[in-house]
Design brief:
alpha/beta; single chain; 13-stranded mixed beta sheet; globular; 34 strands
């Protein structure tokens, strides 16, 4: 069944299996294409735009995802998680003369908010959407890291800098989708590699530079073997610590990478799956960055999840999640944002270990609540049934699905488009965002300071005084600083100080990822049909798995 998206007008298909999934979750299709569904959910999550502001409870200065001029009440993490305030005090009676979303919006405006999601951390105040980090700085969505800086959705790493979607590595720099590596830099789609630089699609390699598609090789440059002594001599020249040399290496690497042989997708140990960056999963379709999961559909990022549909960024232990984002450990969640633990959570946000709740905000360890008002079990079930019946009949506009079938209205997002995680996955210009009806936050460029310090080309020449300098990003013009732990890392790893800010470096890494879209194509070797995220115009040679394994291994 072909449809036109009610938000962007793009044509998309509602297949029979999707209709069965909607029925499973007692829902009707919401009339949105995959991209617009994801944009509307991701709009609720500000992952990496941080501000300094005052805690509204204590007056202390805090780091927060909410700007100082935002209309929300924000408490510091300790106060928000403590017992000095009770979200039930904001409870109200349900009014059947108003729509559900109208009443939820009123509650949404007044309940205090946590400044960051940064749990069980140690000396990691500038991290967000994280658990269990130690001595980390500007890590977003990454958990259980130690001594890491500027990472996104990275787990269990130690002393790494500028890494995304990578796990279990140590002393690595500029890495994407790589696992269990040591002492590597500019490493893409690789695992179990040591002392490799500017490599992609390599497994079990050591001392390799500017290589692709190698398996258990050592002392290779440009995919050619060298004697150890000759390799080490060339390595010293290539990795000289000069920024000019590194930029040349980077351009060469991108060119080499664009013309390599690739498997149809980054899919490992999966059964009946489609999408990209999938590992150890079964029956996952139109999914991206999903691992150890089963029966997941229309998803961006999931780990150890089961039976989820139309979801974004869900973590370990989630089950039966529909049309939600930023969920960890609960079961049976619908239309919600930021839920940790609990069960039977419907159209809520900022929920911790609560169950049997509908239309609530900021509750911790509560049960049988509607609009933050607590009921007996029987009264809750009776009122919930009436509200759900009304929500199924109430539409936000003519021809749309009922409130029951939708995610929270995007007007309730606390963030402008360019503050939200939507900007990372679906980047838009200001003009594009406004045309699609999103808000845009203007930057205060008057606060930018001019460059007064020339960053030396070679890391050996960088003085300690750089720590006191305001640097200007060569790409976007924003101010940024180098911190002490970062400079120490650069010196020890012989890496030049970048002239680009962390955000621009991250955007450059993300630019090498494929779009979140599946295409039909033929294997470039045998002609067999395959599904891939490499667009038809991509220069890479896309192989089916059988041909790829024969060619590479």
């Amino acid at each position: 069944m072909q449809k036109n998206c009610r938000q962007c007008a793009a044509s998309f298909q509602v297949t029979p299996w999707k209709l069965r999934l909607y029925e499973k979750f007692d829902a009707k299709p919401d009339g949105l294409c995959f991209d617009c569904q994801q944009k509307n959910r991701l709009l609720f999550r500000n992952e990496r735009v941080l501000y300094k502001r005052k805690c509204d409870a204590t007056g202390k200065e805090i780091v927060s995802i909410y700007a100082p001029d935002s209309p929300y009440t924000v408490y510091n993490n300790e106060y928000w998680n403590g017992d000095k305030w009770d979200a039930l005090s904001y409870g109200r009676e349900y009014d059947f003369n108003k729509t559900f979303f109208e009443q939820f919006a009123e509650l949404h405006k007044v309940v205090p908010r946590s400044p960051l999601v940064n749990m069980r951390s140690e000396n990691s105040d500038y991290c967000n959407m994280c658990i269990g980090n130690k001595d980390c700085y500007l890590v977003f969505g990454g958990d259980f890291n130690d001594g890491c800086m500027y990472g996104t959705l990275c787990m269990h790493n130690r002393d790494c800098l500028d890494i995304d979607y990578s796990n279990g590595s140590e002393l690595c720099y500029m890495m994407d989708n790589s696992m269990d590596c040591y002492g590597c830099s500019f490493t893409w789609d690789s695992k179990n590699c040591n002392d490799c630089h500017f490599v992609t699609d390599c497994i079990g390699c050591s001392e390799c530079i500017m290589c692709s598609n190698l398996n258990n090789k050592s002392y290779h440059i440009d995919n050619k073997p060298y004697a150890k002594e000759e390799y080490l001599r060339k390595k010293k020249e290539i990795l000289s610590g000069s920024r000019e040399k590194q930029l040349g290496n980077w351009e060469k690497f991108k060119e080499m990478r664009s013309h390599r042989i690739v498997k149809f997708g980054h899919v490992i140990a999966c059964e009946n799956c489609s999408g990209d960056y999938l590992k150890n999963s079964k029956n996952c379709h139109n999914c991206f960055d999903v691992s150890d999961s089963e029966d997941i559909n229309n998803c961006i990022f999931a780990t150890k999840a089961k039976d989820c549909f139309n979801v974004s960024l869900i973590g370990d232990g989630t089950e039966l999640i529909f049309n939600s984002i930023a969920i960890m450990e609960p079961s049976n969640v619908r239309g919600s944002y930021y839920v940790l633990g609990g069960a039977n959570v419907e159209f809520c946000e900022q929920m911790v270990s609560s169950q049997d709740v509908l239309g609530c905000n900021g509750l911790k360890h509560k049960q049988y609540c509607i609009l933050n008002k607590q009921y007996s079990r029987d009264d809750f079930l009776a009122l919930r049934a009436k509200i759900v019946e009304r929500m199924k009949k109430t539409t936000a506009a003519a021809g749309q699905a009922g409130e029951w079938d939708m995610f929270l209205p995007r007007e309730l997002s606390c963030f402008a488009y360019n503050e939200s995680t939507a900007m990372r996955y679906f980047p838009l210009t200001k003009e594009q965002a406004l045309k699609e009806g999103f808000r845009w936050k203007e930057e205060d460029k008057k606060s930018y300071l001019p460059q007064t310090f020339k960053v030396p080309d070679n890391i050996r020449d960088v003085p300690e005084s750089i720590l006191d300098q305001i640097l200007v990003c060569k790409t976007c013009g924003k101010n940024f600083k180098v911190i002490a732990a970062e400079l120490k890392f650069y010196r020890e790893q012989n890496i030049p100080v970048s002239e680009n800010c962390p955000d621009c470096r991250q955007k450059e890494r993300i630019s090498l990822r494929n779009p979140l879209k599946v295409y039909e194509c033929a294997c470039a070797k045998c002609g067999a049909p395959v599904q891939t995220t490499y667009p038809p115009q991509s220069p890479e040679s896309v192989y089916c798995e059988s041909c790829y394994l024969k060619e590479v291994y």
